[in-house]
Design goal:
There is one protein chain. This protein is an alpha/beta fold. It has 3 domains: 103 residues, Response regulator (Rossmann fold), CATH 3.40.50; 77 residues; 146 residues, 2-Layer Sandwich (Heat Shock Protein 90). The protein contains 9 helices and 12 strands. The strands form 3 sheets. Strands 2-1-3-4-5 form a 5-stranded parallel beta sheet, with helices on both faces. β9 and β10 form a beta hairpin. α5 runs antiparallel to α6 and α7 packs parallel to α8. It is rod-shaped, with a radius of gyration of 45 Å. The relative contact order is 0.06.
């Protein structure tokens, strides 16, 4: 048994002396004997105690329970109650002060020693637990502070990114619109040159040839600027799904006619529109972008005299489409990049293009709430499959 510094608080002098003798026999040091709560608190002011033996009924204004409450708050020393009462009311009063132990008088020495050991052990474990709780609370507080600081930094970064994104969008739109006006003028001039070249002129053929080149270049630049403007709008989250009623056959034929007008490699487009409803409800602009880009790509990357199959049907409230070509295909190593902006396959050769078409398709499909998949084999062709929700 280890030696402890003990304060005895007992108003019965005989009981206090017997307790002192028993404790000293077990090598404990008695730092004082008090018969009132006031005296006990005075002794503790000037002496350190490991444990307090406390009678419930004391002389003076403070009883054992009130004295224990003060000791708990001020000194945090374990208290063992000594009392002759074991009724429920007394036990209930004692329990409120969270005593380390409770001994009923009369007690034997062995029982007393065991209670003291248990009281010290209980107090030690409670303090260890409290220390752990304090450390945990401090870590939580520190982590919370760190997270709050990190969140502030993240918010600043996001705000900066938003500002940069808005600035980029404004620059893109302003520059693109700035290009469109002179390009329109150039295109008009090229068309006038072609018209003048229809008359007899020594350089008629050359004028027509160069005017055609100018017109084609302007159309390519205009298409690129349109694509850039599209992504400026998409990046600014200004793309919305706007469904309208669409005359199905008329709409699809318009897309095909527009693509056919730009065919330069003698590729044929074969259509198959099976049992389509007279009208559907969808976003006409987004749907046009999707189909026109897929068909134009199919034609562009087909070999001269090749065939592009364009099939459309309706199933389970979905407009389904298949665009199949027999062109150059896409290598397995590059297929994961297919919808990336400005991506162009290594096998495209001298074919013109910005690498934005399929990125536009992907974004439009996402906004319209559809699905796009593809199957491709290098040098054998590519098939795109679409599923677009309609009403």
């Amino acid at each position: 048994m280890f030696s402890l510094k003990i304060l005895i608080t007992e108003d019965d002098t005989v009981s206090a002396l017997l307790l002192k003798k028993a404790l000293e026999k077990n090598h404990h040091e008695i730092i004082g004997m008090a018969d009132s709560g006031e005296m006990a608190l005075e002794i503790l002011e000037n002496n350190r105690a490991d444990i307090v033996m406390m009678d419930i009924n004391l002389s003076g204004k403070l009883d054992g329970i009130k004295t224990t409450e003060i000791i708990n708050e001020k000194y945090n020393i374990p208290v063992v109650y000594l009392t002759a009462s074991s009724d429920a009311e007394t036990l209930q009063k004692v329990a409120v002060t969270n005593p380390s132990a409770y001994v009923i008088k009369p007690f034997n020495i062995r029982e007393l020693n065991m209670v003291i050991e248990l009281a010290i052990f209980k107090d030690k474990k409670e303090k260890e637990l409290q220390n752990l709780n304090n450390e945990l609370e401090e870590k939580v507080r520190q982590r919370t502070a760190d997270l709050n600081e990190a969140n502030k930094e993240l918010q600043k970064a996001l705000e900066k990114e938003r500002e940069l994104s808005e600035l980029k969008s404004r620059i893109v739109q302003n520059v693109s619109h700035g290009f469109k006006t002179p390009l329109t003028s150039i295109l008009s001039s090229a068309q006038l040159l072609q018209k003048y070249a229809e008359k007899d002129h020594p350089f008629k053929v050359k004028i027509a040839k160069h005017a055609g080149k100018i017109e084609n270049s302007v159309r390519s630049l205009n298409s690129l600027l349109t694509s850039v403007l599209f992504f400026g709008k998409a990046d600014a989250d200004k793309m919305n799904y706007k469904p309208v009623r669409i005359y199905t056959a008329s709409f699809l034929n318009e897309v095909v006619d527009m693509v056919k007008a730009g065919v330069e490699n003698d590729v044929k487009i074969v259509t198959q529109f099976d049992k389509l409803p007279r009208m559907i409800t969808s976003d006409m602009d987004l749907l046009y972008q999707i189909l026109e880009n897929l068909l134009s790509n199919a034609v562009k990357y087909s070999r001269d005299g090749g065939l592009v199959e364009f099939q459309v049907w309706v199933e389970d409230n979905l407009l389904k489409a298949s665009i199949r070509d027999q062109g150059i295909g896409i290598s397995p190593a590059e297929q994961s990049q297919l919808f990336d902006r400005f991506f162009r396959g290594k096998n495209v050769g001298l074919r013109e293009g910005s690498g934005l078409g399929l990125s536009i398709v992907k974004k439009c499909v996402e906004v319209i709430g559809g699905k796009i998949t593809f199957h491709t084999e290098l040098s054998k062709g590519t098939t795109f499959l679409l599923e677009i929700p309609i009403k």
